[in-house]
Amino acid sequence: MGGGNANGLLQALSSVLGPCGFLTGEALRSRATSLWNSQPMSALAMARPKTTSEVSTVLRLCHEASQQVVVVGGGTGPVAGAEPTGDRIAISLERMNQIENIDPINASCVVQAGTSLQTVQEEAASHLMLFPLDLGARGSCTIGGNISTNAGGINVLRYGSMRGLVLGLEAVLPDGTIVSSMNKLLKNNAGFDLKQLFIGTEGTLGVVTRAVLRLFPQQPHRQTALIGLRGFDQVTQLLQLAKLKFGTMLSAYEVMWQSYLEEQLRFFNRRSPFVDRHAFYVIIETEGADSKLNETVITDTLEFAFNENIITDAVIAKSEQERRGIWDLRETLEPFLSDKPSFGYDVGVPIGDMPAYVKLVETNLTRRWPNSICYTMGHIADGNLHFFVKPGLKEALREDCDEDVYGALETFGGTISAEHGIGYEKRDWLLRTCSTEEIAMMRSLKNALDPKGILNPGCVFE
Ligand SMILES: Cc1cc2nc3c(=O)[nH]c(=O)nc-3n(C[C@H](O)[C@H](O)[C@H](O)COP(=O)(O)OP(=O)(O)OC[C@H]3O[C@@H](n4cnc5c(N)ncnc54)[C@H](O)[C@@H]3O)c2cc1C
């Protein structure tokens, strides 16, 4: 849209939202673009609505002016979906950060979309309830972002991804229409399940403003173990055993390749909890109501696995501090992001194919960049791997690395995104994961709900 119109729109937005609700100039520039991009935010302006009705007004005005907008949550998404360019208006839900209601009887809560994940977890815990979505960015990411990306994280194995944790939601369409689907029921087949349109669609179809989330009884006793294994066959054997022995008590099963854990130890100058090195490291977490049972099951199972030659060594956390120490080895990303260039990946591969896939990626990368190192870990029980590639060459290009990492997926029927989404970073690869018909249907939905293409334009597909 032209400058004259833009000025009129900016004035209208400013008067609707007031000084706290509308940022331009230095107030905007002093913010980083996202957690992954430290450049000053370059949007035309940032709208910070405080209510759904204000979100609706902002979108209606932008729609009338054909002004493009980008929805911004916590900015922790690694695919640049929430990074507005200079000609777009950012809409941040950061002032819509209230937990409206916790209902232990119905096992649900009503939250505003700008609330951080950690706030929801803590508020649920204060009612002896659990909101089970959990991931390393818990303190910064928002419920709106979690919904829009269908976030996964470390407890998918037990509780599913965000899609399964949303009972209902409220969203504002690009023309300002408010669609309230604040269902609280576990079963509701009345008509189309419209909330699904806004889960995992990365803010391309509407702005999520509020949600009804599922809660679970809090399990007061947790056991966390770090385990050393000599091969990937043992990793899958242990997973089978853990599923069998722990049943629904098993909440996390995370794997780190040797190079990943050793880089963490090196970077933070930490001592390994083990005397020997191991090819793979697994974090197992169980949770339950009975502390004795929880403890006995994990120690007996690990002892059995040791005697059966499945595991080589194991440590069990004896305090919350030790537990945090184990999780830090998996969740802290600093060692992998400190030297540039470094390229991060989120892919999905059937679990049985993981060793062959990782080998192929490493071979491709070494052929391209002889000094490259690939750090691998993942939520492997969900078929999800994450890589950090350090090419060992300053001029190395992300596009070349994509070719090696995503290109290798085709042999194994994998996906270019298990949980982070497509954003702007992966959209060129979407055609190699989805069929032409699937993409055409996505476009039809986008055109139906956003005919002017003002909302997160170019995100997921052009
Ligand atoms: C240390 C670390 C660990 C992580 N671990 C995991 C993990 O285990 N699993 C996982 O899935 N992800 C993980 N992530 C990625 C990220 O945290 C998730 O994708 C998260 O769900 C993004 O939430 P956000 O609020 O930061 O969204 P943003 O990054 O701000 O936005 C993400 C997308 O959602 C859209 N959006 C945001 N809010 C709304 C809204 N209210 N309505 C409509 N659209 C909206 C944006 O436009 C953008 O397209 C991790 C990130 C970090 C930094």
TrEMBL record:
InterPro entries: FAD-bd_oxidored_4_C, FAD-bd_PCMH, FAD-bd_PCMH-like_sf, FAD-bd_PCMH_sub2, FAD-linked_Oxase-like_C, FAD-oxidored/transferase_4, Oxid_FAD_bind_N, Vanillyl_alc_oxidase_C-sub2. Belongs to the FAD-binding oxidoreductase/transferase type 4 family. One of its GO terms (biological process) is respiratory electron transport chain. It comes from the Bacteria. Residues 36-218 form the FAD-binding PCMH-type domain. Its cofactor is FAD. PROSITE patterns: FAD_PCMH. Keywords: FAD, Flavoprotein, Oxidoreductase. GO terms for molecular function: FAD binding; oxidoreductase activity. This is FAD-binding oxidoreductase.
